[in-house]
Predict the 3D structure of the following.
Amino acid sequence: MSLPPDTPQDVADALEYLQHHLQELMERQHASENNINTTLAALTMQLQQLMQLVVNPSPLAVPNTPLPIPSPPVSPFPAPTVRRICPKLSCPLDFNGERHNSRVFFNSCSLYIRLAPEQFQDKQERILWALTFFKGGRAAKWSENVFCQEVDTGIFPIQTWGEFEQQFRLHFFPVNVEVDAINILEGTSYHQENRTVDDYLDGFQVLVSNAGYTDPRTLVVKFR
């Protein structure tokens, strides 16, 4: 398409862009029409063959020609990713090595790791994370000793969470839990006194569990 010589350049550029865009649309329409025509031709051929079988039921070899499957439209936008909403977690409280708090601390660490395992690259990172809460008392001294062993040997002495649990139980769990619970229940000084019923029941259940009592008759005798 020729333009007058005095046509402004911006108008000429706009006309050229529109002409090019129109040409692309015509080519796309032509390709779409070819695809439709090909599909209609295949359907027409198979329909004629089926009609021939109905009119003349003689054995005919029906060619196994699959229908052309049109390509699904490609979306220009990527599929949205579903992001998992994790529960809000609370970190364990600082641990100073007191034995009566050891179970609570270890359970808090284990629960956090189970709910958010993706926050830790490997098993050793879990151990290092737990050691960050060893502050004060025997806990801080034990943690310091662990890192001193690493400096001396060049190898971190605890390699897995199972080893950490074993060492933690050895150094910080109550030593004679079962014996202490049995002594309290078998003694004569364990009573409700001025505690509420709920507090007494909670304490009694902990003692029974630690002592390993399961006989209902024994439990009735010890509940006083």
